[in-house]
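Section 3.1: Structural characterization of target chains.
Under the original work plan, the team committed to producing a structural model for every single-chain target entering the pipeline before any wet-lab resources were allocated. The record below documents one such target. The sequence was received from the expression subgroup and is listed exactly as submitted; it comprises 757 residues.
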Amino acid sequence: MKKIYLLTLLLFFAFFTNAQVTVQGVPRNDIKQNSVHKNGLKTTTTVTSFSDIQYWVGTGSKKAAFVVQWNDGKNPDALVWGFKWDGNATGEDMLKAIAKADHRFYSLVYQGTTFGTAIGGLGFDLNGQGTNGLYKNNNVTYPLYPLNGIINTTAYDFDDYTAIDAANDHWKSGWTTGYWSYWVKNPTDTDFGYSSLGASSRTLENGAWDLWNFYPGMVDQPISTTLTPVSAYASPATFTDGYFMVNEDWYGHTNGSVNFVNNNGQINYRIYSDKNNNEAFGATTQYGTIYGDKFYFISKQAADGGDTQYTPGGRLVVANATTMQKIAGFNTIGGGDGRFFLGVNEHKGYIGTTTGIFLFDIDNLQVGTLVPETNGKGQIGNMIRTSQYVFAVTQNGGILVINPNTNAVVQTIAGAFYSIVQAKDGSVWAIQQQKLVNIHPTTFVTTDYAIPTTKYIGDWGAWYAGRLTYSTKQNALYWINSINAFSSGSQIVKFDVTTKTFNESFAAIPGQTGTYKQIPYGAALRVNPVTDELILNTTESGYGAHYQKNWVHTFSSTGALTNTKILNDYYWFPAVTVFPDTIAPVVQSTFPSQTTVNSTTTIDLKTVVSDADNLSLAIVKTVKSNSNSGVVNAVINTNDELVLTPQSTGTSTVVISFNSNGKLVEKSLVVNANLSTLGTADVRKLELGIYPNPATDVLNIKTQDKVLNTVVYDASGKIIPTQFSNGQTNVSTLTKGIYILKVVTDKAVYQQKFIKN
């Protein structure tokens, strides 16, 4: 009997000695049961209460702690978060909530198994560079990136994954070469105990602890005596101290995105998606611009059908320029695919598309109708707003000059152009393959300057916003040279607008040694309007996985390379750099608060207003209001001069609005008009007409008063010699453009604009 009893005990002992170990609910015959069920937390840790936890995720009256211990030799190792909730929650709910909230933490999971969700890998971005992502079987061509902190798999293939930034991240994953063991501690428990269940089956209690402990090589690891509280994760609340990188993103996989580079060098990835619940832009986001307090993102198509991670936002997305919070999105933008957006005034914008230019109502956030005569000319390229006009580059129809007040095309400048900018001195410059073309901003007269040896080649076939850029501090333009239509050069070219001289080797693009070289992508080159530094983005030649390599270089205004940043490996395809607009225009003290006029008086507005982060000469000046137009006529001419013409004796308050890239400032001018020296019969508004307008040979002048003389001014204010005789002014010798006719009569002085054909 004793022998039978002893044998029974031996068999019972043998059964439990060789019993299966259950990992996250899955019975495992390949794991020996060693000390796994005895491995409790017997010692005091540095985190002894919830009051030590720094980062809490979620809201509610119930609390639990979440610990991850990697055992990878990197410190700090065992990290702890806090989780709050109401109602019911599982261990899986806690893990997913923390992964979504803390962008440093990421996980590999197999969802939908018989035993619930299996946790295959856990990672943490130790150096804060946002390099969260995995390679499966070392496939660097198609990396995997987390959505809400989760990367999904459909098998127990956890051993196949490695971290992109393996050197600087916590990352452990496995199933047969190591595995994540699950430990739990309820409020009534003295120590942690091994859980044979998975996180999906773990019902959290208020005051509970969950701990994930990785066993490398299938070897048990004691629970750490030091649990380090994770500092709270916080993305920037505002985006003003750096610059934006608008990205095409990975076509066929992901919709467009935008990153932000802080002045301290920190790169914040996908900031719009971060602030808007994983919403992105449309497919191939090729342009972005800030106007006023809004950021306008333009994509070629409304959505990327291959994107399963981010919600598409449409061809046009409007966001708050400071916080990145979404304001509106539009799939349809009038016609065709998106190309460009230009703020025209505080109420109106122009949307450039593949079929023409369409109006955009900024006040009501509505896409409007086609701007007449802008269709049928191929794609719309980039556009600029001067103080008087809009210049729009087209693929097949030259450059269109548009009156922004009437939306009418007033001039077409023929030629095959790629891009257009305005320089610091107010001059307008367009670029062709091997020449710069200077366009007078108001008369539209052109002057060509041949680029000595290098070329500039744009790409209408895969349109981007152009590599021609300008400085707001120097009177200079910059661009990147080209070898041919398929190959960029390696030099940044500088053009001195004042001296009209070229420096075709101003600065060299880095990384020109070895088989695979750095090449510019998208617009590639922009100038910081505040620091005057050049920002150049490059990618790696070679196609395929090489395009995951991206750099951002900073050059001083003298061409010296001062800084290089390396972006996380990913197919960003950076499209254009955009700088925050944080400074409003400033009106100088030289602008009078009041003035007295006895005859037509002009005040030069170009010299009284400036903007530290925009072109001062591009500031739009308008007469917002005139309290008594019967006393004084107030207009702003094409030379940005306020013209005050007294109509009668009295006082009027004229309010001038200054609009610099959508930021407004207003100034009031009290005008005292005095016509007391004239007889009562002469104190009346001058009735005058000129015709034809536009004119080819002569201007006829019709008025009841006696015309004594006429004077013609060009748009810059320069007097142009003409002959006046028998009520006519001969304009046949003038070049085509816009002029001002000043008519002096025996009763008053009158100015009127006319066009010379």
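The chain has five domains: 19-229, 236-331, 461-581, 583-683, 686-757.
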